[in-house]
Design goal:
14-stranded mixed sheet; 55% strand; elongated
């Protein structure tokens, strides 16, 4: 059982989430369930890597009026570090501790210099590639092979605070008093640091374009400072790493980002232009334009235009256009347009249009337009229109294409070939007033199935052959009875291939289902026949002479009421 009592405040309204008190009583309960309950009762959200936080592990705790930090320390065995912002608490795996040894920390005119080395606190081993940075000035460096670092900061007459971060280590922060006179009227500048919340650790650094254009030092910074993101009004860059934010550019969200060749940011909340490319590890808002490609590790909200390619590892809410290809790892709420193909792995709500094809990975309520084909890998309740084929795993909408395929269907497939794997499949044998023997294959769903049919009139002196296709629907009248209206269009061969002989037939058969695999049917039909063949051919029947027509004013058209009786299997 778990008991989580209301948060007990011991201070002001802006009190830290981690400092609030809570009561938890757990006996062998899943960690994920406990974290979810604490979220709901505390009215905040945890963010963590589900590959590291083992939510299936069982925990036991009896805590009365403990702080949330104390509860987390107990359940996570003090192997995690917690960072909070807005209404989120980030759980960062950090079982190890850093130590910092300062060799020099002094003001030299307009510059404040700090040198020293970083080591593992337990082993004393000096650590390479640890990040050393100033939160407010957005300046950083990495330690060398011997753990040494040298950081030069602007001397603004304020105390200097530096932070050391490394993957799997807890952050260490140290404050140095400035060696100059402090102006009492000068307020300490507020840090621009904030946190971007994301549990997607498969960031753009792991994409092929990210590995190609993001430097090793920037990738190390991203690993060390995951979740630590600054905000700035502007960035200008030539290439990633050569910018106004230097190697810290991957940790900064900019309002405006202008990139001569390409840029690397934590994100953009305004406008971004890259003559060749843009790389953003977090979210992008409003407008993004690149001459060749955009790669975004978070979400896109607004308009994204890539000359050739857009790749978004989060979701897109807005408008996405690419010369060749758009890719969205999560959900799309908006419009995707490309000259080649679009692929959204998550849910799609909007429009996908491409010259080649579209793929929707999860539930889709969309319009898919493609020159070749559309694929919906889960439930699809929109409209698929393709020049060649459409596929939907669970069709609840409409397919229009030459070939339409679905695993299950409660919708409509309109095309030359319609196949529903777990749908309506019948092989039918029948006879009617014109053809003695007919064979038809029916495939699709009960709402709409396609019909391929062929027939012949067995008589040496009055032969006929016919073939064609059509559509039908089954209206159930109970367990054993159904009505099957079917419309077919057939070419009738009367001994001369150069003549046009078209038979349009509407059958309305009553079907009795003897078993799941066998049924019998019979019913009336309405027939319209067009022919420009004016004379019969020896040995072949002449359809106009077989039936009494209710059309008497035309030499080309005839019509009659007929019948059909038959059997169906499967």
């Amino acid at each position: 059982m778990i008991l989580v009592f209301p948060i007990i405040s011991r201070g002001a309204a802006a009190e830290s989430i981690l400092a609030k008190n809570i009561s938890v009583h757990v006996n062998n309960m899943r960690l994920g369930t406990v974290l979810k309950t604490i979220e709901e009762k505390g009215n905040f959200t945890f963010s963590y890597n589900s590959n590291i936080v083992k939510t299936d592990s069982l925990v036991t705790i009896n805590a009365d009026n403990w702080t949330i930090k104390e509860v987390l320390d107990h359940m996570l065995q003090s192997r995690f570090e917690y960072k909070e912002t807005h209404n989120f608490v980030i759980l960062r795996y950090a079982p190890l501790q850093l130590s910092l040894t300062t060799e020099k920390a002094a003001a030299e005119g307009d510059e404040y210099s700090i040198t020293g080395f970083v080591a593992d606190e337990q082993s004393g081993k000096r650590l390479e590639n640890a990040s050393v940075y100033d939160r407010s000035l957005l300046q950083s460096t990495l330690t060398g092979k011997d753990g040494q670092f040298e950081l030069h900061l602007k001397n603004n007459g304020q105390p200097v605070t530096i932070t050391i971060s490394k993957e799997f280590y807890k952050d260490t922060t140290i404050t140095f008093l400035a060696g100059v006179t402090v102006n009492p009227n000068t307020n300490k500048p507020k840090s621009l640091i904030d946190y971007v919340i994301s549990d997607d650790y498969e960031g753009i650094e792991n994409t092929s374009l990210g590995r190609l254009f993001i430097s090793t030092k920037q990738q190390i910074q991203a690993a060390n400072l995951h979740g630590l993101i600054a905000q700035a009004p502007f960035q200008a860059s030539a290439i990633p790493g050569v910018s106004t934010h230097a190697e810290f550019s991957g940790q900064v969200v900019n309002t405006v980002s202008l990139n001569a060749v390409g840029g690397y940011n934590a994100g953009v909340d305004g406008f971004e232009l890259g003559l060749i490319f843009n790389l953003d590890k977090g979210d992008v808002g409003d407008f993004q334009l690149a001459g060749i490609f955009n790669v975004v590790g978070g979400n896109v909200n607004g308009f994204q235009l890539g000359g050739l390619y857009n790749n978004v590892l989060g979701s897109v809410r807005g408008f996405q256009i690419a010369g060749l290809h758009n890719s969205v790892k999560r959900d799309l709420d908006g419009i995707q347009l490309s000259a080649l193909y679009n692929h959204t792995r998550g849910r799609v709500n909007g429009v996908q249009a491409a010259a080649l094809g579209n793929i929707a990975g999860q539930k889709a309520a969309a319009l898919q337009l493609a020159g070749i084909g559309n694929i919906a890998q889960q439930k699809f309740s929109g409209v698929q229109v393709a020049g060649l084929f459409n596929y939907a795993r669970n069709l609840r909408g409409v397919q229009i294409g030459l070939i339409n395929i679905a695993d299950t269907s409660s919708g409509y497939s309109i095309g030359l070939i319609n196949i529903v794997r777990y749908g309506y499949h019948k092989l039918a044998l029948s006879s009617n007033e014109t053809m003695n023997a007919n064979l038809a294959f029916k495939s699709g769903s009960q709402k709409l199935y396609s019909i391929w049919t062929g027939g012949l009139r067995v008589n040496d002196n009055s032969k006929l052959y016919a073939f064609g296709l059509g559509f039908g629907r089954e209206f159930s009248l109970g367990r054993h009875l159904a009505i099957n209206p079917e419309l077919t269009q057939q070419y009738v061969y009367q001994g001369n291939w150069t003549r046009t002989n078209q038979l349009s037939r509407l059958d309305a058969s009553l079907t009795y289902k003897v078993s799941k695999w066998f049924a019998i049917n019979a019913g009336p039909s309405l027939n319209l026949f067009y022919s420009d063949q004016r004379n019969p051919v020896n040995g072949y029947a002449y359809v106009r002479d077989l039936h009494h027509s209710f059309i008497s004013s035309s030499n080309s058209w005839s019509g009659w009421v007929g019948w059909t009786v038959g059997l169906s299997f499967f």
